[in-house]
Specification:
Number of domains of chain B: 1
CATH topology of chain B: Helix Hairpins
Distance between the termini of chain B: 41 Å
Mean pLDDT of chain B: 89
Number of strands of chain A: 2
Structural class of chain B: mainly alpha
Mean pLDDT of chain A: 90
Strand order of the largest sheet of chain A: 1-2
Strand content of chain B: under 5%
Low-confidence stretches of chain B: none
Low-confidence stretches of chain A: none
Number of strands of chain B: 0
CATH architecture of chain B: Orthogonal Bundle
Shape of chain B: elongated
Order of helices and strands of chain A: HHEEHHHHHHHHHHHHHHHHHH
Oligomer: heterodimer
Helix content of chain B: 55-70%
Largest interface: A-B, 36 and 33 residues
Chain lengths: 502, 112
């Protein structure tokens, strides 16, 4: 038994504990929720960096909850893919918690916000860290229920309507996941994912696997907002408070949707080439339809929400290709998207905070009054559109190159087209909101408070540095490990089970 | 076999209710019905013909018992269902407070 294994449950425990303490004391002490929210997420971020280091030393860490040995007990697993997702989730969560210190002053009962926020972080960390498929469902529901409540946080007409829509669709999606889990249990008589993969490797393929794949595609596809299942996203994301929009778009759809989808399809069931074709088709469809719907929007946050659908399409296309390069590109785009999309949502929040509107036609010339927001927004826009020095360019390039290498010229063409359309729609945002003549009504607009500026600047720096990082040794430890787990496929099972023996 | 089909019917009824009904409360009821159908299905999967409950006692040997794990798991799932339902009903109450109606066609202001 390695001592380092004890770090594994902390990702859930710290976040849950933080939520509990905030709900207990937050009402009485005024500044407490702010401090606790930022502190907890900072600790989690530090732990996730430590996890990266530990994964480089030990490869796979397996913790048995309550000292019950898996496959009977619940296992928690940290491997390359998990630690990659942990860093993404907790980095974004920390910066958003810092941002919320000032932004959430507009709302009453901040402590409720931080409680739900930390619960959501706990759920997401749980989903990525667990090695047990029913446990995955439980954490998925924790994160989902917290996010339904957070979408409704403003309790105005639109917020409530969007939250109801999201909650109904999300619950039905979760039900499909649960049915899939029931079928898997009936087929393999185990809930442990590594054990399940072993059973799958021994049994001959059956049609049940196809049924389960379709169920999971519906359930997790709904959480990831792939195109036929995307209807909740353009309502829910703009209606939530800006930090939560950033959280939903930045990490929730990825850890609940993309991560779970990939983990189950690649490491448990094993990727079938039909399935890979379906993933690529859905990815391309989301990519194109998302961007076409986005370009006509005048609501700043709604436009960004449609772009989330489009960018998730890139991630799914890259991962669905199944080649090591494609998976690498997909995961790199996942990380990049979580950075620049949360930055864009924070920008939209800053504009709304300062001017009180989300309508692009009512803005104009904000560059003079809000230089930090305008500058960071420009960087994020260029990243998402794929302009060379920024991180978005590199990941899109890798995905397109991988598609061409694998012989899917059609998909590569659509990826390029969607990228051009993205550029067009972000030129529209920049032109209408930040450049041009300052409107008279906006004359006394002020730049946002320090904590909001700070997290926007940090995110913008990561956008710039992301491209450089790709060529360095950090990438080796960070991305290669993660894509190695996915392209390793079913060897996940033997790695986890052998780590248990130690 | 027939019991599985009935379970499927229950699930389909719930989904039908979610898709077709215009009243918010009926939609929530539909979700609850389909949730229970899934829970029931999980229990059915674990059932063994003529099996007894998996309780160990020293005086009787256990020959044929049902699978105990899904029963424990379904308990968790029921609790999750409770949390979701409570939240949905809380949102529905707030919606009624704002709009004075439960009809989804009359509160539809966003078009995703």
């Amino acid at each position: 038994m390695i001592q380092a294994v004890n770090i594994v449950p902390l990702f859930v425990v710290v976040a849950l504990g933080g939520a509990f303490i905030v709900s207990l004391l937050g009402k009485r002490i005024k500044a407490f929720p702010d401090i606790m929210g930022s502190l907890t997420t900072f600790v989690l971020f530090g732990l996730s960096l430590l996890a990266i280091r530990l994964v480089n030393v030990y490869d796979v860490l397996v913790y048995s909850v309550g000292a019950w040995k898996p496959p009977i007990g619940i296992a928690m697993v940290i491997d390359g893919f998990t630690s990659f997702m942990l860093v993404t989730v907790n980095l974004v969560a920390f910066l958003i918690a810092v941002y919320s210190i000032s932004y959430m002053r507009q709302f009453t009962s901040k402590w409720k916000f931080y409680t739900l926020f930390l619960l959501m972080v706990a759920g997401m960390n749980g989903v990525v860290i667990t090695g047990d498929i029913f446990n995955l469902f439980v954490f998925l529901e924790i994160a989902s229920v917290a996010s339904y409540a957070l979408v409704a946080f403003g309790t105005e007409r639109h917020e409530l309507e969007a939250a109801f829509k999201y909650a109904v669709m999300g619950t039905v999606g979760s039900l499909f996941v649960l049915i899939g889990i029931v079928f898997l249990y009936g087929y393999t008589s185990t809930l442990n994912m590594a054990d399940m993969a072993m059973v799958f490797a021994q049994k001959p393929t059956s049609n049940l696997v196809l049924l389960v794949s379709v169920l999971f595609l519906m359930g997790f596809g709904l959480k990831a907002a792939l195109v036929p299942f995307h209807a909740w996203l353009p309502d829910a994301h703009p209606s939530a408070p800006a930090p939560i929009s950033a959280m939903l778009s930045g990490v929730l759809i990825k850890s609940l949707g993309v991560y779970a989808l990939c983990r189950i399809f690649y490491n448990v069931i094993g990727l079938h080439h039909n399935l890979s074709g379906i993933l690529m088709f859905l990815g391309t469809l989301s990519m194109v339809i998302g961007v076409f719907l986005a370009i006509g929007q005048w609501d700043f946050k709604r436009l960004l929400a449609y772009h989330s659908i489009s960018q998730i399409g890139y991630v799914i296309l890259g991962i669905g290709l199944g080649t090591p390069l494609g998976i690498l590109g997909g995961l790199f785009h996942l990380f990049n998207h979580s950075i620049f999309k949360s930055l864009l949502f924070l920008n939209s929040g800053a504009v709304e905070y300062a001017t009180g509107t989300r309508d692009l036609q009512k803005m104009g010339g904000l560059k003079e009054r809000m230089p930090v927001t305008a500058g960071t927004n420009l960087i994020a826009s260029m990243s998402i559109a794929g302009i060379p020095p920024f991180n978005g360019f590199w990941s899109k390039l890798i995905i397109i190159v991988a598609a061409v290498q694998a012989g899917f010229y059609g998909h590569a063409f659509w990826a390029v087209l969607a990228s051009i359309m993205t550029l067009a729609s972000f030129m529209k945002v920049t032109k209408y909101a930040f450049f041009g003549r300052l409107k008279d009504k906006l004359n006394n607009v002020k730049e946002v408070p320090f904590s909001m500026k700070l997290s926007m600047i940090v995110l913008a720096c990561i956008c710039v540095a992301g491209g450089v990082l790709f060529f360095s040794a950090i990438n080796q430890a960070f991305l290669q490990k993660a894509s190695g787990v996915l392209s390793g496929g079913l060897s996940y099972a033997s790695e986890v089970l052998s780590a248990l023996q130690q | 076999m027939i019991i599985y089909l009935l379970c499927l019917l229950l699930f389909s009824l719930g989904i039908y209710c979610v898709l077709r009904k215009r009243n918010i409360i009926k939609i929530i009821v539909g979700i609850i019905i389909s949730e229970y159908a899934v829970n029931l299905f999980f229990i059915l999967v674990a059932y063994r013909k003529g099996g007894r409950s998996p309780i160990f006692s020293p005086d009787s040997a256990i020959l044929n018992m049902v699978d105990a794990l899904p029963q424990a798991v379904v308990l968790t799932s029921i609790v999750i269902g409770l949390a979701t339902t409570a939240l949905l009903i809380a949102i529905a109450m707030r919606i009624y407070g704002k709009h004075r109606t439960f009809d989804i066609t009359r509160i539809n202001e966003l078009n995703g």
